Amino acid sequence: MSRIEVYAYKGVLGIAGMADKPEDLEGVIVNPYTMPGNIGFLVKLNSIRFTKEAIEELRKIPKGNDGLGEIECFKPGDKEPVFGWLGGRMKAIQLSKIETSRDWNTSLLTDDLIDATLETSKGFMDMVDEALTSNQQ
Prior knowledge:
Blueprint: E1 4-9, E2 12-17, E3 28-30, E4 40-44, E5 49-50, H1 52-59, E6 71-74, E7 82-86, E8 90-94, H2 122-136
Parallel strand pairs: 1-5
Antiparallel strand pairs: 1-2, 2-8, 3-4, 4-7, 6-7
């Protein structure tokens, strides 16, 4: 099983599900590919690999006012905490534009979720650098 990775680089959050099929991603509860009617992913929080920078940046995002956010981190009742996002297996979004729901709970984003061996993907960094460069021209 592949694990989903979450990075933060130059003000952009990256989510990468590195598998050919969503059912090959560890911890997936809901996905938009094999579960029609769903518009994003919901994944067991402890099955995701986070960089230290991603956790630090996610903790800064304020709780929203709506029932659904661009990204989510919450504990549904007595079940284990989950992390979710709108969209597919790969996502990049400016941290300053992320909106969360009223259930957003940064206290769940603990240091033990940080994978010290995980480095931000070079492909993700190259994509961000290219986007930032093209926006300056």
